[in-house]
Amino acid sequence: MFYVTTPIYYPNDKPHIGSLFTTVLADFLKRTAEIFGDETFLLTGLDEHGYKLYKTARENGKEPLEFLDEMQKYFREAWEKYWIAYNRFIRTTDKDHEEVVKYVMERLYEKGYIYQGKYEGYYCYRCEAFYPTSRLIYKDGKYYCPVHLKEVEWMSEDTYYLKLTEFKDWIKNLIENKDFIIPRGYKNEVLGYINELEDLSIARPKERVPWGIELPFDKNYTVYVWIDALLNYLSGIGYPNEIYKKYWPAVHVIGKDILKFHAVIWPIVLKMIDVEPPKKILVHGFWTVKGLKMSKSLKNVIYVEEIYDKVIPVRYFLLRNAAIEKDSDFSWEEVYAFYNNELADIIGNAFKRVTSLGLKINNGIIRGLIDPEVLDELNKYIKEGKSLFEDFKVPQYVIGVVKVFKFLNEYFQEKEPWKTKDEKVLYNSLFIAKIGLTLLYPILPEVSKKALDVIGIKLKPLEQQFLQETFYIKESPILFPKIK
Ligand code: MSP
After folding, report:
1. Three-class SS state of 237
2. How many angstroms does the Cα of residue 268 sit away from the middle of ligand 1?
3. Which residues of 57-89 are buried (b: 16+ CB within 10 A; e: fewer)?
4. What's the rounded Cα separation, in Å, for the pair 219 and 267?
5. Using CA atoms, how far apart are residues 206 and 217, in angstroms rounded to an integer?
6. Which of 25, 27, 102, 363 is the residue whose CA sits 20 to 30 A from 3?
7. Ligand 1 within 6 A of 18 CB?
């Protein structure tokens, strides 16, 4: 089972290129696992509680739930337009999720991992996180959040703490010995968080943060939004019902800004309730626009609803240039350059040549047997693709798919079937296209299915695509019309 998750997004703003990227990346991983024969489950959704949401809803003159019901439409619509095949869209206001959060809080309390205390410190409500002064920016007598560069608030209140520090050695050992954070370079950053680990305040007084899940053992408090949110990864698959074991452990796709929550706090919470740690945490960087961080105040945010007509070039670019190892810049020149140079000139061109000739031979019904040399070459691409996928080398995987079509172009050019009318050569060419299109599926699923349909083939896991089938060719469309 390949269970993959996205972070659940704060719906105080509409989805943009950043949230789109995380979601496309998770969808890509799900679909790749699918063509390599795995069963899959993709969970995405919304993080709907907390102070920030409450505040935003009120600023919009709405009740929280009314505001959320409107905002969730933007996300569902965006993911539908961008071909996101999620299995569940979870909202933390869903009843089953709320029940799970209460159940877990009760268990943690019974097990003695929660104790009462007082919190004093600086809080950034945009991050929904407390910061020690050592991590804040100090300027002219004031402290600023290192992520948002906005002034943080001093907070002093009664709360409940979760005994994270009891598991300090355990988590340190886990991070040092189990390579589950990708890219591996994040290890030191995580060990840094562990060194300064403190117990976590997990409750908010209801009079300050009423919009949240009530703490089951003290009705004067709501559960800290991050604990509430992280638990979606379990409630989304039916926990505590045994069914969750069919899916767990998960591959979490996250941005680098929420690493501490996922790599330190989350595994400890899981340990406390006797659930094993995540399988992998894939951490990606940020997308910038003309080198600048996207932000409302700079008015440079690219919202998904503005680019519904550009699904193919955008999805391709996000994966081809995936901001995983480092931050990446989103530029339209590059989006179109990759589209024209690789999708149109290589993949689309190869497909058009092969299918156009196919239509002219034997009424487009092409039978044959795969040539062992071609088969060897294809097996090489598949083996390489699988290992790139397993190592989360996303751009390299995309380049690998382009290489299959380059191979197709070369093979076609060398054998000159348009002169010889050799059906065997055509069959082999179509076979290469079939494998290439199946490998393209995780990147551009709808194009892949449409193009396979043109040659009379259904999308199937790669192993089954190696069965010998007759091709029935239909009128071939231009898959990727050039964009000027
Ligand atoms: N609600 C929390 C996540 C809880 S998960 C249990 C949250 N939400 S968020 O909406 O602020 O961010 C969600 C994800 O979007 C994060 O992984 C963040 O890194 C990502 N991105 C937001 N802006 C981004 C870019 N400009 N570029 C790439 N990803 C960015 O955090």
Report:
1. coil
2. 21
3. beeeeeebeebbeebbebbbebbeebbbebeeb
4. 27
5. 13
6. 102
7. yes
CA 428–ligand 1 middle distance (angstroms): 45
Measured distance CA(199)–CA(161) in Å, rounded: 6
Report residue 291's pLDDT band, with 50, 70 and 90 as the boundaries: confident
Q: What is the DSSP-derived secondary structure letter of residue 468? A: -
- What's the number of CA atoms in the CB half-sphere (13 Å) around residue 379? 8
User: Would strands 142-144 and 203-205 be described as parallel, antiparallel, or unpaired?
Assistant: unpaired
366 lines ligand 1 (CB under 6 A): no
d(CA 119, CA 122): 10
Burial class from Cβ neighbours inside 10 Å (0-12, 13-18, 19+) for residue 39 reads: exposed
| CA 467 – CA 463 distance, rounded (Å) | 8
Is residue 429 pLDDT above 80, yes or no?
Answer: yes
- Domains annotated for the chain, with CATH where assigned, are 332-472 (1.10.730.10)
Residue 348 beta carbon below 6 angstroms from any ligand 1 atom = no
CA of 21 to the centre of ligand 1 (A): 10
- 98: CB partners within 8 A, 6+ apart: 92, 213
Whole-model pTM over 0.85: yes
Tell me the C-alpha to C-alpha distance, in Å, between residue 437 and each of 40, 84, 374, 379, 426.
20, 18, 16, 14, 16
Tell whether ligand 1 has an atom less than 6 A from the beta carbon of residue 303: no
Distance (angstroms) between ligand 1 centre and the Cα of 263 equals 15
Q: pLDDT tens-digit profile of 180-208?
A: 999 999 999 999 999 999 999 999 999 98
221-223 vs 280-284, strand pairing mode: unpaired
Alpha carbon nearest to ligand 1 atom 30, residue: 18
Atom nearest to 16 CA in ligand 1 = 23
pLDDT of residue 370: 95
The pair of three-digit structure tokens given for residue 475, joined into one six-digit string: 């009128």
Ligand 1 in contact with 257 (CB < 6 A)? yes
pLDDT confidence of residue 95: 98
Please state the rounded mean pLDDT for residues 431-457: 98
Write the residue with the smallest CA distance to atom 29 of ligand 1. Answer: 18
CA of 229 to the centre of ligand 1 (A): 12
CB 426 within 8 A of CB 355: no
pLDDT at 130: 85
Ligand 1 atom nearest to CA at 9: 10
